[in-house]
Fold DUF2857 family protein.
Amino acid sequence: MSAPHPLNQAVIAQALYDLRNGQLRRCKAMGFSEAELDALKHPAMVSVLA
């Protein structure tokens, strides 16, 4: 498996930050769907991305 790309990590980090602060519209503006945002809310999924 290749190393994670820094830009991808930055986008995920920003989305997680926005989710934690209730900024759902910002996440959607970045192109995330409801299903993707629901997946990011689960700690098991986030640990896979880290």
Remarks:
- The radius of gyration is 11 Å.
- The chain has a mean pLDDT of 84.
